[in-house]
């Protein structure tokens, strides 16, 4: 199992914008066959160094993860995210 944790810091850190981004990420659920599990959580402890959202996604294999990255649904969501993103970080691991 491959797990990818993606941290997002948004340009507009308002609650409404954070929820809109969370909804966009969750919209991928059930639409990408390679995506086994998807959680999107909002940070409850804000601060200058804090990120706003964490997306935790799981895949059966690295090949599945790579296929997810180029899937049209993911590409569309990632293009939207790129427009609202101030910074991101990720950790991908196998368990």
UniProtKB/TrEMBL annotation:
**Looking at the record's lineage, which domain of life comes first?**
Bacteria
Q: Which SUPFAM superfamilies match?
A: Dimeric alpha+beta barrel
Indicate the segments forming the Stress-response A/B barrel domain, all copies: 2-93
Query: Which PROSITE patterns does the UniProt entry name for this protein?
Result: S_R_A_B_BARREL (PS51502)
This chain belongs to which protein, by name? Stress responsive alpha-beta barrel domain-containing protein
Lineage in the entry?
Answer: Bacteria, Bacillati, Bacillota, Negativicutes, Selenomonadales
């Amino acid at each position: 199992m491959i797990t990818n944790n993606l941290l997002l810091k948004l340009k507009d850190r308002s609650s409404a914008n954070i929820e809109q981004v969370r909804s966009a990420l969750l919209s991928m659920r059930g639409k990408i066959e390679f995506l086994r599990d998807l959680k999107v959580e909002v940070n409850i402890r804000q601060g200058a160094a804090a990120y706003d959202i964490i997306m935790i996604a799981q895949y059966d294999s690295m090949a599945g993860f790579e296929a997810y990255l180029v899937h049209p649904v993911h590409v569309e969501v990632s293009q939207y995210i790129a427009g609202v993103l101030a910074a991101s970080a990720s950790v991908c691991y196998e368990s």
